[in-house]
Specification:
141 residues, alpha/beta
């Protein structure tokens, strides 16, 4: 693990979290990184997939749900936290848990919004990483 970043948004809307995740994933993809966005379930992965196809309206983020054989390979994939595939590039964690194999990734991003449930879980994630000696960076947006 080279770097862990917490991006703290002022917003409390879950869609703001998903929009920022899309922008962050797109930036990392454009820099040549493979990106995996993890969520809590296969259903949440499908919902995020649908969301990213529609937003932002002015751009296109090539992505797919991990393992979707009907979609072409993409630099950004979405998966439940219990199925990280073979990824090791950039992990964007939107799940309520710390994915088991997070340490194999070069970078990990946690996106914080001002919703009580997200604040609680991301604080727990912060404590988890710090307790294991990982340097954690904050970026207030």
């Amino acid at each position: 693990m080279n770097r862990i970043d917490f991006y703290v948004l002022r917003d409390d809307d879950p869609e703001a979290r998903w929009q920022f995740a899309g922008r962050l994933a797109d930036k990392a993809r454009r820099l040549g990184h493979q990106v995996l966005v993890v969520v809590d379930s296969a259903e949440a992965a499908r919902q995020l997939d649908d969301f990213l196809w529609a937003r932002p309206e002015e751009s296109f983020l090539p992505h797919r749900v991990l393992g979707d054989a009907s979609a072409p390979p993409a630099g950004v994939e979405i998966a439940p936290a219990d199925d990280l595939g073979e990824h090791s590039g950039v992990l964007v964690n939107l799940s309520q848990s710390v994915p088991e194999a997070f340490e194999r990734f070069e970078r990990l991003a946690e996106i914080v919004i001002q919703a009580p449930d997200v604040l609680k879980t991301t604080r727990e994630h912060f404590g988890f990483y710090k307790a294991r000696g990982y340097p954690v960076n904050h970026q207030k947006l």
